[in-house]
């Protein structure tokens, strides 16, 4: 069997960070000049693509990189309180036993991701953590990673919870699994046509086997 690399997004895919990020974003509203986000607005935002959210945001796009940097800095203080997605650790252990190389590729800071991994004793499960600061250009992070690790797009399966994850994977010519327990809703993810769409961590095992078979030509 081909030993593929499984790349996981962090926020919303491995870690339940939404509530913390909303709280931090609301705390920074006065400094950046926007209204706080109410619970009912979150539901509406989940049905928008990343580009639609930016387009309708009252925050000038020139300020967004500074806001995102501040959110990541503030999130550092919340790492000890963040919870993993339920059932994810068992899935990671299974994939590791199956011989996959596991990594995290995130636009969050490497320090935050590493702190979470160490907090939950996941160090033995992941072979690497790769991060990069970007709003839309996550495909650039992926391509930099492929170049650094001397990997082909066919070696990779990417798993994420946002439409921008699907778009980045498509631009990078890699297979992508979208998960419905993170930020974007199932409907808007489906509209972006990921290779597989899953509703629970347990379904990742079969989804990865399905994509693995499509690469190797083996029957699942």
Number of helices: 11
Mean pLDDT: 91
Shape: globular
Supply the helix-strand structural class: alpha/beta
Number of strands: 8
Main sheet: which strands, in order across?
5-4-1-6-7-8
Outline the biggest β-sheet: 6 strands, parallel
Radius of gyration: 17 Å
SSE topology string: EEHHHHHEHEHEHEHEHEH
Residue ranges: pLDDT <50 for 5 or more in a row?
Answer: none
| Spatial separation of the terminal alpha carbons | 12 Å
Amount of beta strand = 5-15%
List keywords for this structure.
single chain; 220 residues; alpha/beta; two-stranded antiparallel sheet
What does this protein look like?
- This protein is an alpha/beta fold and 220 residues long.
- Helices cover 46% and strands 14% of the residues.
- A six-stranded parallel beta sheet has the order 5-4-1-6-7-8, with helices on both faces. The chain has a two-stranded antiparallel ribbon with strand order 2-3.
- Helix 1 crosses helix 5 (64-75) and helix 8 (138-149) crosses helix 9.
Q: Brief description of this entry?
A:
The protein has 220 residues and is an alpha/beta fold.
Layout: helices, strands, pairs:
Blueprint: E1 5-8, E2 15-16, H1 18-27, H2 29-32, H3 39-46, H4 50-56, H5 64-75, E3 83-84, H6 88-97, E4 101-106, H7 110-119, E5 128-131, H8 138-149, E6 156-160, H9 163-171, E7 175-179, H10 186-191, E8 196-198, H11 203-216
Parallel strand pairs: 1-4, 1-6, 4-5, 6-7, 7-8
Antiparallel strand pairs: 2-3
């Amino acid at each position: 069997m081909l030993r593929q690399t499984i790349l996981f997004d962090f926020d919303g895919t491995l870690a339940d960070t939404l509530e913390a990020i909303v709280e931090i974003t609301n705390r920074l509203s006065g400094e950046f000049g926007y209204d706080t986000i109410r619970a009912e607005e979150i539901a509406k935002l989940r049905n928008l693509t990343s580009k639609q959210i930016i387009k309708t945001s009252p925050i000038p796009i020139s300020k967004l990189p500074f806001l995102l940097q501040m959110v990541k800095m503030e999130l550092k203080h919340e790492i000890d309180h963040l919870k993993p997605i339920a059932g994810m650790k068992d899935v990671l252990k299974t994939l590791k036993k199956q011989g996959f190389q596991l990594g995290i590729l995130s636009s969050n800071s490497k320090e935050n991701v590493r702190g979470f991994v160490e907090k939950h004793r996941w160090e033995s499960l992941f072979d690497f953590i790769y991060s990069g600061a970007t709003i839309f250009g996550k495909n650039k992070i992926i391509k930099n990673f492929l170049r650094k690790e001397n990997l082909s797009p066919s070696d990779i399966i990417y798993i994420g919870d946002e439409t921008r994850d699907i778009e980045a994977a498509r631009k990078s010519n890699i297979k992508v699994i979208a998960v419905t327990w993170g930020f974007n809703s199932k409907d808007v993810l489906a509209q972006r046509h990921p290779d597989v769409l899953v509703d629970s961590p347990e379904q990742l095992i079969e989804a990865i086997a399905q994509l693995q078979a499509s690469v190797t030509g083996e029957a699942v």
